[in-house]
Description:
Layout: H1 3-13, H2 20-33, E1 38-45, H3 54-70, E2 74-81, E3 89-91, H4 93-103, H5 109-125, H6 132-145, H7 147-158, E4 177-182, E5 187-192, H8 194-206, E6 220-223, E7 230-231, E8 236-242, H9 245-256, E9 259-262, E10 272-277
Parallel strand pairs: 1-2
Antiparallel strand pairs: 2-10, 3-6, 4-8, 5-7, 5-9, 6-8
Amino acid sequence: TPADKKIYALRDVTATIDNLSLISSSIMSKKLAAGSDKILLDVKCGEGAFMEDEEKAAELATMMCKIGKAAGKETMAVISDMNQPLGRAVGNSIEVIEAIDTLKGRGPEDITELTEKLAGIMIFLGGKAKTKEDGYELAKKAIKSGTALNKMKEFMERQGADVNVIDDYSLFPQAEYKVEIKTEKSGYINGIDAKLIGIASQHTGAGRAKKEDEIDYASGIYIEKKVGQEASVGDTLATICGNNREKVDRAASEARKAFKIGENRPKAFKLIKKIIEI
């Protein structure tokens, strides 16, 4: 879909980035060009997502599912929460490590749940399970038995990657500097602004501010306390990693503002808010 990049640039200068029809056509053109018979979309909503409102996210997801159906592809969408960072790692190498940990059965609860649900729905769409629930169980079994991790190794081998990283994380790029953000008052984590964490992570060197910037693959932010967890004075909220001390200190200052601490434990939120089928 070579035209998409040019159309996106046009949208940028005409302030039409957030037009639902243009978002839908941009995303679905690439999905359809890939040639898949079945398509599953994970549409985020919340502070850290492009679609902050759940209703808008559902509207976008429905529109994309209709496009898929019109093209003869069975298409479903999951609306999932992004009011706090998904998992604990925000960066490059540390996110890959977290993904490997998830396939080893020891990933964060939210990433594990989302992985099992998305994989389960794809198993169902692929005709390998009679119901979505059966698909979820098969996905869980694939992780528990090591089948999922072995499949990742196979993918990596076929692409010429070093599979030794799966068992030896020291082979990943390592950060020279690590700064911990400490809790200054006791209470419960009432919220973590995913957008602020994303911006802070970019400033560690994990992302680009402009096209020419080089990415530091070892940098990023590791969230130590998630929403709903109790924190005491001096507990570590997050660890900021990178190879440029000035950038790490700046990111730490920004990331600190993302944590909201209150006296009362917040209500548990639902990770998967809705599944859309057309």
